Structures are given as C-alpha cells and as structure tokens.
User: What shape does this take?
Amino acid sequence: MAEPKILEQKCPNCDAAMVYNPTLNKLECEYCGTTIAIPEEDLVQSTSSRKEKDQALEEIKPLPVYNCLSCGAEVLVSQETGALTCPFCQNNIVLTQQFSGTIKPDGIIPFKITPETLSKEVQNFYKDKPLLSKTFFSESKMGKVTGIYVPFWVFDCEVNGALSYNGTKPGASYRRGDYIISETQHYILERNISVNFANLALDASEKLNDDLMDSVCPYRFEELKPFDIRYLAGYVADRFDKTSQELQKRNDQRVLKSASQAAIGKTTFGYGNVSLRENQLKAHMEKAKYVLLPMYLFHVDFHGKSYEFAVNGQTGKVVGNLPRDTSVETMYFLKRFILAFLFMAILIFVFFVW
Assistant: This one.
C-alpha cells in the first residue's frame, strides 16, 4: 500500500505546530506568535463534477495507519479521516490526498467561533431552560470538545408542478317546515407551483447524527471561501462517505415537503374540510457542491447518561438534548397552574364581588 501524502503545518521560525486562528483569519504559531496569512481569493469550485466525486469515492483505499513525520509514531486512522492531531507529539497533520484531485472540496467555511468563546455560546444555550435539573451545572461533566470540519453536500434545486385539494365553504341556511337546512359548497382548489431552493446542506458522513447535523444549520454561504488546506490546521476534518446520489433522494423529499406545506396555506385559506386531491410536484436537482463546514462536537455526562451536543462553528448556534428532571417539571407546571388559578380568582372577584 502506498504511503499517504502528509502535510504538516510547521512554524517557519521555531518549527512548532501552527493552527488556524479564526479571529485573525491566519495560521498562528502558539509558541512564538508567528502568523501566516491565508490569501483571499474568489471562489473557484474544483474542476471535478459531483458525478466524478461520487465515482472517486468507490476507488479510495483504506488508510489504516500513518507515520507522523515529527515523532515517527504509527497512528491508526479511519478511512474518512483527513486532518487530525498526532496524539503523541500534538503535531497537526493533514492527509492531503483526502482533499485533493477529483475529491477536492468545492469550498470551505472557516471557523469563526473560537474555543475561548465557545463556553459563552454553550452557557447562553443553557439559560432560560426551566425544566433543566438544578444540579446539572454542578454534577454534569463536559467531555472533550472537538473542532471538526464536517463534509456536506449542498444542493440547489427547483420544485414545480401542480397541487389540488378538496375544500368546502358554508352556503345559505334556510328553514323548511320544522327543519333548518344548511347548504355546503364544495370546491376543487388548484395551484401551480414553482419554487427555487438554494444552499440546502445535508451532512455527508455516515457516523454523524443526521438530525443533529440538520439542526446545526443554516450556515451563511455568502462566506464560503475557496478550499485551502491550511484552514484545517489544528482541527479534525473528514472526507465525505455519502455520495451526492445517495443524499439526493433525501433532499428531494425535504424540498417537496417544504413546497407542499408552503402551498397549502395559500391555496386553502378560508376553506374547511380540506383534503389533498392530487400532488404532481416534482423536484429537479440543478447542482450540488461538496463543502466542509465548521462544527464543534462534544458530549455531556450526567447521572450515567451521555448527551450529544453540536455547535455551529460559524454562527455559534448550539443544539443538543438536555436532561429533564421530573420533579422540576412537576413543580414548574404546578406553579403555572397556581398562577393561572389565582389570576382567574382575581378576575372573578373583581367582576362579580367588588
């Protein structure tokens, strides 16, 4: 097996490992402070098409080990790993063939949220959570935080076609003998649909939770930059292992559902007993691009259970599951019930007794 091509981001002055600093938008040496600018360029997508990227994925061989150039240690890596830190000498490593040639990403959004400001974003997420256990802050344990560039396929597509519904409206009412007769008018409601969708992101990693990844979105794609391998320094990065073809069906289902939900309110407003009569909507994929998006991942352990969290590395949006304390939940709803009861009692007293 051929040796993987390895790139180390080394400081030109002291030979220490360099990392990408989101605040400076530069590579920075954490030892001597040397910085190296990453040139701003117009976004130029890779020359390979999405079909060529999909085909190339099938030809990639596993990379079971690599030899760190700094300390010589052999480190196991997964087939998708493209950037990591050597666990022995802490040197930042990029396996360049994971992000080059046919499978080079079409773009990257660099980290904006720094590890120093990450805790603030997480604390803001915890605020105003009335059902959160009171002992969560003192008894929970936050695991290692990993800054990772997650592979995504980003789709532009169009939905068009026609929808039709059955609906009713009340008609005239009149008396006939001992009976009151109410008429109901029946309608067929039709609407032609044409909707464009842009920058719909779906994660392209088998090992990540799709619901969690969907919740971290959206990203601001106007800040998408040309892919530069130097942005990966100091972070973990994975290559995609889901092809665009595999994700297109899921994307089509999502946009068809969104278009239908948007149309039904406008089409059936003012009508009752609405039911779908016919759905002729079709999704047409216009283009797909492969990009790397920044994210922090970590787990919080609390009372024997592990809760998964993710933070959007560009916007700071935090998502994750929080434990619910049944006693806190009971007291919360009991207080709300008592307050509502007291409010109603005051109203009754004012209007009927005062």
About this structure: The chain has six helices and 17 strands. The first strand starts at residue 6 and ends at 8. The first helix runs from residue 50 to 59.
